[in-house]
Amino acid sequence: MKIALIEFSVENFKIFKNKVTFSTVARKSDHTFENNGESLLKTSLVYGPNASGKSTLLDALAVMRGLVLNSATIKEGAKLPYHKFLLSDEENSPIVWEIVFSMDEKIFKYSFAILNDRIFKETLVEILTEGKEKKYLVRNEQSIELFDVLKKSEDVISKTRKEVLFLSAASQWNDSLAIGIAECFKNINIISGQKNERHGGFTVKLFKENPEARAKILTFLKKADFCIDDGVIEKIELPEKVREHMMLIGNQKDIPNSVDTINFSHAKFNSEKENVGFEKINMGNESMGTQKFFDILGPIIDTIENDKVLFIDEFDNSLHPFLTKFIVDIFEKNNPKNAQLIVTTHDTSLLSYKDDFDKAQIWFTEKDKFGIGNLFSLAEFNLRNDTEYSKKYLEGRFGALPFIESL
Q1: How many Cα neighbours within 13 Å face the side chain of 377?
Q2: Most buried among 75, 97, 226, 243, by the most CB within 10 A?
Q3: For the whole prediction, is pTM greater than 0.70?
Q4: In this predicted model, what pLDDT tens digit does every residue of 347-370 receive, in sequence order?
Q5: Which domains does the chain have, with CATH numbers?
Q6: Beta carbons within 8 Å of 260's beta carbon, 6+ residues apart
Q7: CB atoms near residue 126 (< 10 Å)
Q8: Radius of gyration of the chain from its Cα atoms, rounded to whole angstroms
Q9: What is the C-alpha to C-alpha distance for residues 229 and 232, in angstroms, rounded to an integer?
């Protein structure tokens, strides 16, 4: 099921005490695509100092996604991810999530709140023309009302425990609308800044099983100037000590005896600089930048080919500024199905491409003296057309900079 992200909001989650809203709505331009009457951005960049909320924004969406997809399967009495804002003496305050998204020919707004160990509220409405709303679900704790096509799943109400989202339960019991929305959430890919390597296995699998994807991965590696001519998948035996270590840290019993690995071919030259063949180099011996770029190529290709939404945290980690711009350009210029890319980054070189971005694409996070995070867009500033975004940002004109005292 295809999804287009329109807005995402969260309140009282970790650093975000007050409600913050990220939006992809913008005026029509080369950076947008039309979807159900809305002009939506293909790419967005989120800047801000460390510990200001960039990763938390993605973490909040990941928690929402996880609850929608998995809360129906958690054990009775299991703990919910109740990570509220801690730097306040307010108690018993709910965490609230809200997302507005397009699914096929309709726009939905889905929201829920959790309070300690239970679902506090849950609503699903369809947004109609002129701002009107069509109700499907209204929940206040264990009081659940269903409307329209959801009414046929009234028997699921009795199966919905206090720690389970009704939408998650209904999707498990084959409600078509709930299944469609769950599929939309599955099509939101989120890459954590510290855990890019977990996506390397997906890219290797894609490289091994999909000839078209393999060709695209090699093309991107060549265009990125990694001096790679080809690549082959080979199986390697895992040493017993490695298997024992994997079982220990992963708490798994069925560790395979062998795994797929990829070897890249690099051209070799003699003293006369003549090509004399190729040398195979295992992925583990490639540079960190090559490994990071390869790891995220799988999710990038999957997102573009299947019209998904991709979030990447710490986008510029181990990547040259030209590579980050290269990836953004893929979504801006080679994206026929209008997939969306949202990244958090410190790479201010991207801001220097002023003519390649619209103000609505650039977002900032910052934290005030009370430890409260905020999120805002560059579109909120009244700027001259010749403003150099990178220079003004580093001068502190937009805020969202760390205050570092001299030693």
Answers
A1: 15
A2: 97
A3: yes
A4: 999 988 878 899 999 999 999 999
A5: 1-187+306-407 (3.40.50), 197-302 (no CATH)
A6: 204, 205, 208, 233, 234, 235
A7: 16
A8: 23
A9: 11
